[in-house]
Amino acid sequence: MKKIILACLAFAIAGGAAVSAMAGSLENLERERALAIAALLDSTIDVEARWNKLNLSTARLADLEVMVINDKSLKSTYSPRVKHALSNYELTFLAHASAEDDKSIAAHWFERIGLSTDQLMASRLAK
Asked: How far apart are CA 90 and CA 98, in angstroms?
């Protein structure tokens, strides 16, 4: 009897974890884009580590962006989140938009949010 209760409990926990861990294609894209931008802005890593992280993120972002573009469920659930993401192509589809502009993700993102190289060079690190 104890084994049956433990098995049922384990099954319920595993089922609950599987349901709560599901995320849509847009959420996965947003999460990966946030990780790429966090690596871009991280002042604790050196240039080579940042370059490696951004190269890995670029490949992941490109794959996830294609998944979002091909996701038919987004058209049927046109929520404010989906509407906002699709109306901001240059920031939502960062890997594709930066490739179209023939720029790095970093240069493209900084340009789209309104920061120039001069502004970045004139800024100072505050702690």
From this structure: 8
95-108 confidence digits (pLDDT tens): 999 999 998 888 88
Q: How confident is the model at residue 31 (pLDDT cuts 50, 70, 90)?
A: very high
pLDDT tens figures, 105-121: 888 888 898 887 777 77
DSSP structure class, residue 21: T
Question: How many CB atoms are closer than 10 A to CB 39?
Answer: 19
Is 0.85 surpassed by the pTM of this model?
no
- CA end-to-end distance (rounded Å), the chain: 59
User: Cα 65–68–54 angle (5° rounding)?
Assistant: 25
Beta strands, E only, the chain:
none
Burial 79-97 (b: 16+ CB within 10 A, else e): eeebeebbeeebebbbbbb
Which tokens in the block code for residue 103? 């720029």
**Burial class of residue 24 in the structure, from the number of CB atoms within 10 Å of its CB (0-12 exposed, 13-18 middle, 19+ buried):** middle
